[in-house]
Design goal:
The chain contains eleven helices and 14 strands. It is of the alpha/beta class.
Length: about 325
């Protein structure tokens, strides 16, 4: 589901597809053997992401992918790297091993589209997801499942206006990733006050917090901080509380650590993109394509978000986080 500007909740193709899950695992990989999942030919599908090691957000994506793989009698081969050339090499490895399909994130379309095009030329269907929502078509992928990132930024900018913020610091945890730039761009387009960008290394939490804190000390007019990942939001919430700062804090995505911070207002709101759906739909749609050439999306991105989560609707969605499926 995703929430419109008026606050109505809409159920779309993503939610309908989720209802087809008949086998779900929150910890293990896909089942094996002809008795597992669908009574169809065993397939091998590679999922390649830009997630750095230990990224909890992508753990949820992987859980969704594993659930679809178990249902569809698919062997899932997962690999990831925050280094874009390494990610591209993982896609090439999947091509060389002649997998039946590839699901891939596109944080840097210029760097990754050529190798995705190689996969398509080799007759391997590709699904894009999570990153690259505005440029995935040029890669030759069949469909895209994820959050329209500019729109997600617009949601945040509009909500920050309502909260009365005047000077927003949008903190990007990695340079060159199109989805992060789009979020900040969307915020700036709708926010009535001043929007400023800051780059801080997200794989080093102490350094990330130190960089943001130094910027805020340098410019006391900053009254709102937007981090673009849940663990970054948690770390900044702890830092702001310790310093006695009254700045509002906003983040993206949703996990268990955020729930008490949303409940007590330490984090004003988060923008959720439902990562479980992204993983599930990516694998399930490749299975469908292999069965009868079904393609979902008609060259349009299929949105899995954005959904604004705050104190008003936290109770409605927190169980999914506890179960590892949101």
């Amino acid at each position: 589901m995703f929430r419109t500007r008026s606050g109505r909740v809409l159920v779309g193709v993503a939610a309908v597809a989720l209802a087809t899950v008949t086998a779900c695992s929150s910890s293990g990989g896909a089942q094996s053997g002809p008795e597992a999942g669908a009574g169809t030919e065993r397939l091998t599908i590679a999922m390649v992401t830009h997630a750095p090691e230990g990224d909890a957000f992508f753990d949820v994506i992987r859980t969704g992918a594993e659930a679809a793989a178990a249902k569809d009698n698919v062997e899932l081969k997962y690999s990831s790297s925050g280094d874009i050339p390494t990610q591209a090499s993982f896609v090439q490895n999947a091509i060389d091993s002649k997998v039946d399909g590839i699901a891939v994130t596109l944080p840097d379309p210029d760097a990754l589209s050529p190798v995705v095009q190689k996969a398509v030329a080799a007759g391997i269907p590709v699904i894009a997801f999570n990153a690259g929502d505005r440029r995935w078509q040029e890669s030759g992928a069949l469909s895209f499942y994820g959050e329209p990132e500019v729109l997600a930024g617009e949601f945040a900018g509009t909500k920050l206006n309502i909260l009365g913020a005047k000077h927003v610091l949008c903190v990007l945890q990695a340079q060159g990733q199109i989805q992060l730039e789009d979020r900040c761009q969307g915020i700036e387009s709708k926010f009535a006050g001043t929007t400023e960008k800051l780059y801080a290394q997200g794989t080093d939490l102490p350094q990330f917090v130190s960089t943001v804190s130094a910027k805020m000390q340098q410019d006391p007019s900053i009254d709102a901080v937007v981090t673009l990942g849940p663990q970054l939001g948690v770390a900044m919430a702890q830092s702001l509380k310790a310093s006695g700062s009254q700045a509002k804090l906003v983040t993206y995505a949703f996990n268990q650590d955020l729930m008490p911070l949303l409940a007590d207002g330490s984090v004003s709101f988060t923008i959720d993109q439902q990562p479980y759906l992204q993983g599930y739909l990516s694998i399930d749609s490749l299975w469908l394509y292999k069965q009868n050439k079904s393609v979902i999306g008609a060259q349009l991105s299929v949105p899995t978000g954005p959904v604004v989560i705050d104190q008003s609707n936290l109770a409605d969605v927190q169980q999914g986080v506890k179960d590892g499926i949101r």
